[in-house]
Specification:
This protein is mainly α. The protein has a domain at 1-98: TIM Barrel (Alpha-Beta Barrel). 38% of the residues lie in helices and 9% in strands. It is built from six helices and three strands; from the N terminus they run H-E-H-H-E-H-E-H-H. A three-stranded parallel sheet has the order 1-2-3. Helix 4 links the parallel strand 2 and strand 3 (91-94). It is globular, with a radius of gyration of 17 Å. The relative contact order is 0.13.
């Protein structure tokens, strides 16, 4: 059960709501927390992680701006330390959603895939018509590397 922020759903947006539902479902239902969503909805994201405790089954990472860890304002040292404090030994799932910036102010000129493969022209038109594009493999790999560079030294 993953709480999402209020801009994505009205159903479950806080960790305590996800915990209540998981507990009502039964002992095999766990909670997935996402640092990006916690940052929006929780007064104290570290307290929310602590409260999830042994019900935490997965943890998603993206910075407060939805870029890779370390590219925003979240305190990754405190987040990882809190996960360690509760004995969490599950997955840490990279779930950044890099914005597509087609303007001259784009700080990442290699972000957008210029020569997509394995996608039909109709699929590409749909993606572009809905305000998005495809990220280049080079940019995506760089973002994953940024997450690893920030998080790996913190995991003991």
């Amino acid at each position: 059960m993953e709480p999402l922020n209020r801009f994505e759903t009205y159903f479950i947006s806080r960790a305590d709501q996800a915990l209540a539902l998981a507990e009502a479902v039964g002992p095999e239902c766990g909670v997935c927390l996402d640092a990006f969503h916690l940052n929006i909805e929780e007064a104290d994201m570290l307290a929310a992680i602590r409260k999830a405790g042994s019900r935490l089954y997965d943890f998603h990472v993206a910075d407060n701006n939805r870029l890779a860890c370390g590219m925003g304002a979240l305190n990754w040292s405190a987040i990882i330390r809190t996960l360690q404090d509760i004995g969490y030994d599950g997955a840490i799932t990279v779930e950044f959603v890099a914005p597509v910036d087609r303007t001259p102010a784009n700080p990442f000129p290699n972000a957008i895939e210029k020569n997509p493969v394995n996608i039909s022209p109709e699929q590409m038109k749909f993606i572009e018509d809905h305000g998005s594009s495809l990220l280049s493999e080079e940019f995506y790999d760089w973002l994953v590397g940024r997450c690893a560079a920030v998080l790996l030294p913190l995991i003991k």
